[in-house]
Write a structure and sequence with these properties.
Length: 403
């Protein structure tokens, strides 16, 4: 696909941002940060143009849920499954079906695959369908032709793309289809229950107790929030528009810092991998360079100074609640530097420059939910996993560790 004039302008702006931070402009390598950023943005645009492909699957899932059946996520991609379970802006009804577990007749099972796992998932889908499950497979179109699934959700990623890029397409499909299922049930007079982010109750005490009141429910009952009907494509389109803006803002406002951090990580990783602390459903399972560039730090803050050691450097892949105060204190105790990949909070007034720290804004809203559905009490469909994956993939490319 040709780069459009708008994309060329974005590239020029991003390159100017890099020069402003003292970072060399993007290289011409196919695996460069620029190439990845442009590819991700084109993928979002492709999903946006093709939201109508979700109409029939959404109606199928809505009908099954209204009939009393369950919705399960399955497949070998643990990050994709984690992204969809118990998730701010996601469905409460969604559960997990273990790889070898039997499905319940009538249940809907969403499978995620990529080129490496395709053959096994074709077999798994056939097995589940023999158990009278309705299977929707999420992934790329095979190089050899049409996919061998009865119901298929195209990731719109190339068959030969790396697994994390296929994952990006599948996450976009996961949340856009979720929005269309919600809209389809609302058009039938039923409102699905969505999770509110647990941090919203901390920041806004009036929201405390919402999740507990609805826990275990598939649909809201009378007197509870009720979504108003919207046309097909409304929810998915709004989500993709929000993601488009988020990625644009990261590329034009943060990418210089992302590249500089990636280069520093690459330099340090020659000696030893850099500790990364992650607050995410998905990203623990998607560190493609675990043990090379990064080591996933899962210990407590009391032991963080020991893990950082002399000349310590921490990458914190956080959330919309700003900097972890305890982690900040642990980094300072270690006389280390940190990269805070977060959504900044105005009330936190840390002097990052004093310590040589870097702040990278993930550019999504408080609550980690991008879409306001008319009549509903909270926003739905989370963008944070996409933001985190986008920044991470840019960093490892800047580090020169992806060919």
């Amino acid at each position: 696909m040709d780069i459009t004039r708008r994309e060329l302008i974005k590239t020029a702006v991003a390159s100017a941002c890099l020069r402003a931070f003292g970072v060399p402009a993007f290289g011409a390598s196919p695996a460069s940060v620029e190439a990845y950023a442009q590819r991700a943005q084109r993928l979002v645009a492709q999903h946006r143009r093709n939201v109508s492909r979700l109409n029939q699957p959404a109606e199928l899932v809505a009908g099954a849920l209204i009939a009393g059946h369950g919705l399960k996520l399955s497949g070998p991609d643990r990050g994709w499954i984690s992204e969809g379970l118990g998730r701010a802006g996601g469905l409460m009804v969604t559960g997990h079906l273990a790889p070898n577990a039997a499905g319940a007749p009538g249940d809907v099972v969403w499978l995620s695959y990529n080129a490496r796992t395709y053959d096994d998932q074709v077999k798994r889908a056939a097995e589940l369908e023999s158990q009278q499950c309705q299977v929707l497979a999420f992934g790329p179109r095979p190089a050899s032709g049409a996919p061998q699934f009865q119901h298929w959700i195209d990731s719109m990623t190339p068959w030969g793309a790396d697994e994390n890029f296929a994952l990006l397409g599948n996450v976009l499909s996961l949340w856009t289809l979720t929005g269309e299922v919600a809209a389809a049930t609302a058009r039938k007079g039923k409102t699905l229950v969505f999770w509110q982010s647990i941090w919203m109750a901390t920041l806004h005490p009036e929201m405390k107790g919402r999740n507990e009141g609805y826990r275990g429910h598939t649909f809201h009952t009378a007197g509870e929030p009720q979504m108003k009907p919207v046309p097909a494509g409304t929810a998915s389109g709004a989500y993709l528009d929000a993601v488009k803006k988020m990625l644009h803002d990261i590329q034009t406002q943060e990418m210089g810092k992302v590249v500089a951090v990636g280069q520093e990580v690459g330099r340090r990783a020659v000696t030893s991998p850099v500790p990364i602390s992650i607050m995410s459903h998905m990203m623990h399972d998607e560190l493609r360079d675990e043990g090379k560039l990064f080591t996933d730090y899962k210990g407590d803050n009391a032991h963080l100074p020991e893990a950082l050691g002399a000349d310590g450097y921490l990458v914190y892949l956080g959330y919309y609640d700003g900097v972890s105060n305890d982690m900040w204190n642990a980094v300072r105790k270690a006389n280390a530097k940190a990269v805070w990949i977060i959504v900044p909070v105005a009330t936190q007034t840390y002097n990052f420059a004093q310590y040589g720290d870097v702040v990278i804004n993930q550019h999504y809203e408080e609550g980690d939910a991008a879409v306001k559905m008319p009549g509903y009490d909270i926003q739905i469909l989370p963008p944070s996993g996409i933001s985190q994956l986008f920044v991470y993939e840019a960093m490892i490319r800047a580090a020169g560790n992806v060919s």
